[in-house]
Amino acid sequence: MGNTCVASASPALLRKTHDPALKWKFYGFSALLDRGAVTANSALFHCCGYSWFLQVIPMHKRSGVEIPYVALCLCLCPQNKPIVIPKKPITVQNIFLQKKGFIKGTYTWTMNNFLDMKLPVLSPAFDVGGQKWHINMHPLGDKYSTNSLSLYLHLHGRKKLPLGSGMMIELTLSILDQKHGKHYIVTGRFVFATKAKSGWEWSNFVPLKTLMDPSRGYLVGSNCILKADATIIGSSNDG
User: Residue 119 is part of which domain span?
Assistant: First the structure.
């Protein structure tokens, strides 16, 4: 996603402690395990003048360790600039995970002039769970990418959600292989909340060299097909 996971802090940060900025509570955590080892990201929160998010890996596998375990990372957004944020109460994100009755949606975006695209482009809106979503694509990559196609998923009209509400989305983005059926697939889980940013990004979704390779089938002429499969697997409301 183009974000940085922080494994340690600099000595300068260790000289001063800060009150907790986020409490992320899962209800029905086993539902994540049931759906596989895909990572899940919290909504953004602010601490020490920067924006962060937590990332949990339900079944992390480490070299030399036979049994998978739950891993937790603190991640710093790369586009951060120091900002002054007034002291405020701890942010609490409650997510009630579901095991059945999922709300699903699929959207296919066909671009017939991909090679002519140089500037960022926004997909038509599509509906999942009564909410409107958009995919924002940077054909030549955003400023954080390294020669890669960049993709963003945005929730349209986030401010219209009930105050304090949130949802966890399991999203699979695929660039379809139009020749062999061996699609380029990326899956992730993300929290969208009223008090957080309205989108998640993959700055390095797919290397441009891979995308442009004629043998891969991702581009046929100037035709490129992007598919989004979204499932709401949890919300801040257990009703």
Answer: 103-235
